[in-house]
Give the backbone structure.
Amino acid sequence: MSIASNLSNKLKELPKSVQLVAVSKTKPNSDILEAYNAGQRIFGENKVQDLAAKEDALPKDIEWHMIGHLQTNKVKYIASFVSLIHSVESIKLLKTINKEGLKNNRIIDCLLEIKLGLEDSKFGLSKEDTLSILNSEEYLEMTNIRIVGVMGMATNTEDNKLIQTEFESLTEFSNSLKKTYFSNINSFKEISMGMSSDYSYAIAAGSTMVRIGSAIFGTRNYG
Ligand SMILES: *Cc1c(COP(=O)(O)O)cnc(C)c1O
């Protein structure tokens, strides 16, 4: 199967309300161009260096999403162009993004990455940490970031019931944040959840954005 046909098959499966982030990490520019020529414009990468290099080399109307763990000292390399950062997991990182947004005279859209599973979830905010960020004076004073929703990764398991429960809990949490902190803010609407193996469960649970890599570009050797 070609990248273009994988892509069109996936798009047929997604409801119109769900955006597709094509996760191109570890894949060459030629693969990205193949998807681009088939109409795809949103691509996700998980390493700053790759994201910056690909942005530099590829068409300018691509929307680049940062989906991986982001170190504060590397925000500066993507701040001028990144269209959405999915992986905000500390107030420190949010402060840095805000500072770099200010330097670049732009508002950078962000998602709060919420820890879903218990096991192997190295990254992501607990629900308590999320609330303490949103309640903080520091957050309220940030002028150059905009939180447009949440992101989560389900536990890597064969237990589909567990995956379902985790995705449903993210939607519930997002709804409660919306009520308390973003009630009149229409831009807070994204729930980024679902990857190649579990996107159908994510969509059933209310995902607005799926991040699909291997089901479009084929399996990766690393990353
Ligand atoms: C790699 C990755 C994906 C895509 O994974 P696939 O299984 O290839 O679809 C989605 N989200 C994040 C955060 C990733 O790192």
